[in-house]
From TrEMBL:
GO MF annotation terms: GTP binding; GTPase activity
Provenance organism: Oppiella nova
GO cellular component: late endosome; lysosome; phagocytic vesicle
Protein name (record): Ras-related protein Rab
PANTHER family listed in its UniProt record: RAB FAMILY, RAS-RELATED PROTEIN RAB
UniProt xrefs under SUPFAM superfamilies: P-loop containing nucleoside triphosphate hydrolases
Nucleotide-binding listed as a keyword: yes
Coiled-coil regions listed: none
Keyword annotations: GTP-binding, Nucleotide-binding
Family to which this protein belongs: Belongs to the small GTPase superfamily. Rab family.
InterPro entries per the UniProt record, alphabetical: P-loop_NTPase (IPR027417), Small_GTPase (IPR001806)
Record Gene3D superfamilies: P-loop containing nucleotide triphosphate hydrolases
Annotated GO biological process: endosome to lysosome transport; phagosome-lysosome fusion
Entries under Pfam families matching the protein: Ras (PF00071)
Length: 138
């Protein structure tokens, strides 16, 4: 069912509750699910931002350490992370702007690669049948 929700996505937030460590432990399951069901046209994963929500509450587990979250994001393909609070409106706009910037940066890179590749001609002789035949028809 998640494939329907991910269809044509170009970026994603994965959110965990800083006061409930099991929600952080489930992040890798969600990231794997996302990465296996949606990708950009070049096959790369969509930009994904980790949100450590409820930062207005006491932090438990991995949420206590910015260094741990930095390392986690680097090792697991997140484009970054933010402490957020939906209740107090902490870093909600900032995190959304960051993800949109990453999406636009990736789209620009893909467009440049595509325009560059239009100038490349690839010759493929696999449909010629007899491999002993000369490659040139001159």
């Amino acid at each position: 069912m998640t494939r329907v929700y991910y269809k044509e996505a170009v970026g994603a937030f994965l959110v965990f509750d800083v006061s409930r460590p099991p929600t952080f432990e489930a992040i890798l399951k969600w990231k794997h699910d996302l990465d296996t069901k949606v990708c950009l046209p070049d096959g790369s994963p969509i930009p994904c931002l980790l949100l450590a929500n409820k930062c207005d509450m006491p932090k438990e587990g991995a949420a206590n350490s910015a260094d741990t979250l930095d390392k986690f994001c680097e090792e697991n393909g997140f484009c970054g992370w933010y402490y957020t609070s939906a209740k107090d409106n902490v870093n909600v706009d900032e995190s959304a702007k960051y993800l949109v910037a990453k999406i636009l940066q990736r789209q620009k890179t893909l467009a440049l690669e595509e325009s560059t590749n239009k100038d490349i001609l690839t010759l493929d002789y696999s449909s010629h049948g007899d491999s002993t035949r000369r490659r040139c028809n001159c």
